[in-house]
Specification:
- The complex is a heterodimer of chains A (114) and B (117).
- With 114 residues, chain A is mainly beta.
- In chain A, 0% of the residues lie in helices and 53% in strands.
- In chain B, the strands form 2 sheets. In chain B, strands 2, 4, 5, 6, 9, 10 and 11 form a 7-stranded mixed sheet that branches. A 4-stranded antiparallel sheet of chain B has the order 1-3-8-7, with no helix packed on it.
- With 117 residues, chain B is mostly beta strands.
- Classes of the chains: A mainly beta (114), B mainly beta (117).
- At the A-B interface, β5, β6 and β10 of A face β5, β9 and β10 of B.
Chain lengths: 114, 117
Amino acid sequence: AQTVTQSQPEMSVQEAETVTLSCTYDTSENNYYLFWYKQPPSRQMILVIRQEAYKQQNATENRFSVNFQKAAKSFSLKISDSQLGDTAMYFCAFLTNRDDKIIFGKGTRLHILP
Amino acid sequence: DAGVIQSPRHEVTEMGQEVTLRCKPISGHNSLFWYRQTMMRGLELLIYFNNNVPIDDSGMPEDRFSAKMPNASFSTLKIQPSEPRDSAVYFCASSLALLVGGGETQYFGPGTRLLVL
């Protein structure tokens, strides 16, 4: 069975700093997809970034980038120049190519401090 | 483009009452997912549809829960009778899955916050 582990329940950083959120996963699959979703206080689930396992290049979306280490089954999210609006719960998620069922981690609550 | 639309946004009801949650997926998307989020259990997939057909309902907690998708633009999740432990945020998500297991991104609605007293 696939699992997703986020080992940091909560983090706080100062505005403008860089922060890295950790995520590891376990699977025997070779083809899969990884996501980071953001859930601000409004509760809306917002896609931050997506990575296909067959791509070696790390995905980047503006201030958000990932460090995808397939052999280590690690998928961390780096937020550069953090902003107050980045305050949210961040979920790491995994999707195989066998079906459409996303598996979510428990989340990391990130506080950006002014 | 409108995103996934859910209604109502908030629902407060008494134990034993029927609750119906509604979802309109993004136009053109052919897969629809119902999730439940609680502090204790996190995000759980309840059921998902592909081309209006239920593909996997193994996450549906019990017979009190049922879901339908009568057409490509509408789905309901019904709880009858509701219980206090059903209190949660219920999310609907949709994706354009050209084939099962295509790895398509799921886009979430704003959720329905349900409180059963």
